Amino acid sequence: MYEFAVVGMGIAGLSAAIRLREHGYDVVLIGDEKSASRVSAGIITLQLENLKDILLVRNSINIIKNLVGSSRLEEIGVTCRGFISVEDSEEAEESAELLKKAGIDFKQFNSRDASERWPWLDLSEDEVVTYTWDDLSVEADQFIDFLMNIAEKKGVRVQEDWVEEVIYGEKNKLILQRSCEVEAEIVLLCLGAWTRDFLSKNGINIPTAILRCPAYRFRTANNITAFADEVYESYWRPGIDGTIVGGGYHAELVDDSSKFFNSPPRRFRSGAEKLLKIRLKNGIEFVEEWSGPCSITADLDPLMDTLPGHENVLFIDGLRGYGLMRGLALGYLLADIASGRKDLDTVREYRLSRFSSLL
What we know:
Elements: E1 2-7, H1 11-22, E2 27-31, E3 43-44, H2 51-68, E4 78-87, H3 89-102, E5 106-110, H4 111-117, E6 128-138, H5 140-153, E7 157-160, E8 163-167, E9 172-176, E10 181-189, H6 195-200, E11 208-220, E12 227-229, E13 234-238, E14 243-248, E15 252-253, H7 266-279, E16 284-297, E17 303-307, E18 310-317, H8 323-338
Parallel strand pairs: 1-2, 1-10, 2-7, 4-12, 10-18
Antiparallel strand pairs: 3-6, 4-6, 5-6, 8-9, 9-10, 11-14, 11-15, 11-16, 12-13, 13-14, 17-18
């Protein structure tokens, strides 16, 4: 019997469990270690198109700083600090306005000055580079392992198993696939792309679509800073052993969870490779590819709410491929709401009721 059961071992579930333990609750974390978070591209950047998202990422970065403590950055999977965005002049003006509103430190460079600072970057004369300092790039699998270790050190009970069913009630009963039953006063469902199917078994429908997003690793002699190419639409970060990781803005709809991690189509890889060659002055060599699912809502904002008819069960979904960026902040927020420290009205814009006309 636990006070809280958190279902899902991705970034949101881990951060919610950590936060609840920081508040002193008895917490069990249940799930399969293979999550979408582990196969993400590994970029945590403040340079986004939405003010709310920028503020969430700023909170996530502050949480990471607190969790890291005395650990060395390479121990937790960090491969780069800082982020640059290549934009046309109009986009650069919009980015500057957003970053100013969010209170984020940044600097913008014309193409000549940017080429001197980042000589590996091939720029056109009229392009502008926006640089922010606090952004992080990580090897996602290593970073999630770090958070798992933090959770266990803080006293979270980890149960590697899949929840077949939740019998809702004053004491929620979770039926596990391989082992025992678990009871908890409050349940947090942090299942990511699996949320929609899990809830539909209980007659609860949520308006999300699932995309399968690819990522690629190339070997290169360039020592790059993580960057987004907003002109030709791709994003890249430094990896381990002289590699870079990223891709183009490609994705495909997928409804079958057994295909969430399938290899991406060859045309996506060809497109990503072509986009990367536009920006790098030296050659590249393909190393590996993978893909993972991301859940997206119609208005692109996350879902965070209690289940209809079950006030002691909460869920989060719809992180839109920005889970690694926003997930820590949203997980902490979910934990604070579940423990009564914040009210659901503080996330009114994320609640399920905004889609009432679709349900």
